[in-house]
Write a structure and sequence with these properties.
homodimer, alpha/beta, disordered N terminus, disordered C terminus, DNA-binding
DNA sequence: TTCCGCTTGTTCACGTGCTCACAAGCACGG
DNA sequence: CCGTGCTTGTGAGCACGTGAACAAGCGGAA
């Protein structure tokens, strides 16, 4: 399907805040598709995704004019366009570095493959675990990373090592050609500007919750709503 | 130690973006404490935490004037004040709902207790797993949640169930008196405004990485750095 | 005491993101 | 064909977060 030349706004830069919401919209569309309705309004999509309708419309407008006024958005078509934009038309192979508690769980977690991110390899530095098999994948030594990346066509690296090893693992991943890294280790990583880095720190999330709970207990103040998606719509 | 009455800016509301960075600063301070230096400059703290010095100073100023011009911040004192502000002077007991792959891993993950969030209870709906023991904790049935919360003095709930069960589990947690929830299920939860909700969606993080990688491959454009907190930061 | 170097705390200007409000535009009925 | 109802797409104003720049202020040296 060629680009419809209606508007030239296509392919312009999409705000970071919008990008972080696109996956939520996509998930909501999948839900909506189950209802059998051919189209969906921005208001309904807002309900499903936990944002407000105006934000939904503005976000979707960055992708192009895929809606029909008076009707809504074609569910299937929007789903396709969004998948394409997010690069989900192909699978992205993932390597997990560090097969401790967390790495082990991630390797067994089915949610990745389901959503197009199959775990294709596991690496670790401990000779004790190298060679063991998890969920059908044999753990290899981290020294073999460049070979593993090439063989398995890896694009994304997940760091699930202790904090002390994280930076070195990141460096090795980058050397091996990986340009997208998801870091679970509770430490700050430094990467070149052409590498995308995101981090998930479980303890930090709990500490943020702790802050607001503390405030609520201490003050008589009631403002404690957190952030994105899901904060209470009192309805 | 009573509040110094120098400035009345104490106890003012702290921006959400700043709150999400406080745990990072605190972690950096712990690192810095290992160096033995009694004080730390905003520049050094910026280096350790991955932000810039101006942001660090502004963030810290929300907590009060705890620095000394020409010298820096007293590491130990700042650490104490920040812990107090984050509510980390006491342990917060956590219950994990859903003992599947992820819940199991979280229960075994030592990082929580270490940082003041001991996992005090596990609940599940599956009679098959109720009664089994994980990391010294016996899994109880989710119907017992109110009793569990009372007995173990639980303040924070972690949802590690399938998406389909997440909303009901959240409702039950709130009924049981929990006011802080961390959601790992890939779905939008609705909670009353007096409940804090944060979410971690692993697949979403990968999809965001996928977006930037896709862009880099497709376009000749090289802008892809991320580094949000949790929204997100985001961060 | 006075001067000097250093680092904080704060102010200001800017950019990004969010919300509101409404014109544009499509489908459908008469 | 034309009017009506409904929903998108977008422009403008506003709130929030960020970065640079600088005055305020502390400690130490002379």
């Amino acid at each position: 399907m060629a680009d419809s030349p209606k508007r030239q706004a296509r392919r312009r830069k999409i705000p970071e805040a919008t990008v972080s919401r696109l996956p939520i919209y996509l998930r909501s569309l999948l839900e909506a598709a189950g209802d059998g309705l051919p189209t969906i309004s921005s208001e309904r999509l807002a309900e499903l995704s936990g944002f407000n309708a105006a934000k939904v419309r503005k976000d979707l407008s960055y992708l192009g004019s895929y809606g029909t006024r008076g009707v809504g958005y074609d569910v299937e078509y929007l789903q396709f366009q969004m998948s394409r934009e997010l690069g989900l038309t192909k699978d992205w192979h993932v390597v997990i570095a560090g097969v401790g508690n967390l790495g082990h769980a991630l390797a067994n977690y089915g949610g990745f493959s389901e959503r197009g991110f199959p775990v294709a390899a596991l690496v670790d530095a401990d000779p004790e675990v190298v060679g063991t098999e998890i969920n059908g994948i044999v753990v290899r030594h981290i020294d073999e990373l460049p070979a593993v990346v090439a063989e398995e066509d890896i694009s994304i690296g997940i760091i699930a090592t202790p904090a002390s090893a994280a930076q070195e693992v990141a460096d090795r991943m980058i050397d091996a050609g990986i340009r997208s890294i998801l870091n679970f280790a509770p430490t700050i990583l430094t990467v070149p500007p052409d590498v995308s880095l995101r981090k998930v720190d479980l303890a930090v999330e709990l500490q943020i919750l702790s802050f607001y709970q503390q405030r609520r207990s201490g003050d008589g103040d009631g403002s404690a709503s957190s952030e994105s998606a899901g904060s209470g719509r009192g309805g």
